[in-house]
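Reviewer 2 asked us to include a model.

Predict the structure of this chain.
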Amino acid sequence: MPNPDADPAFCFQVSRNTLVYRYLLLLVLSMIGALLLSLLIPMAVSGGDYLIGGLLALWALALLRYWAFLLAMPHRITLEGGEHLILQSLFRTKKVKCSEITALHVSPFYQSYLKIITSGKKTFPMLNHIDGLHDLILRIKSENPDLETKGC
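Predicted model (structure tokens):
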């Protein structure tokens, strides 16, 4: 478990503005979805039009999936001893050796996401707006000179 009093030079966080923007956007989409569900589902059931109900249910499932994705995404990275990255999210904490990280890629489809890829083919997606991202990359490269970066 990382030390909360760790040197701030070794703690990297997704910017507060980015997190607030993401959570507010998702909250607004969820409120619109809830409003549409509450209005259109009774109409779809009473009118026998299950296509609208099915589409709204798919949208609700997509929103729930994105909530889980966003809340499980690391928002804080702590470099422990120069050898391990500790990726903290609201749901979990993962520990990854810097020497096992093979690549850092910015998503080609959506530039706001960064993927941390390990030698075991595990990926850890996170928001790209990390305070001190270039310093973090240099620290990882000092431990793993073969690190591949794309779009960072």
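The first strand starts at residue 11 and ends at 13. The CA atoms of residues 18 and 94 lie 22 Å apart. We have added this to the supplementary material.
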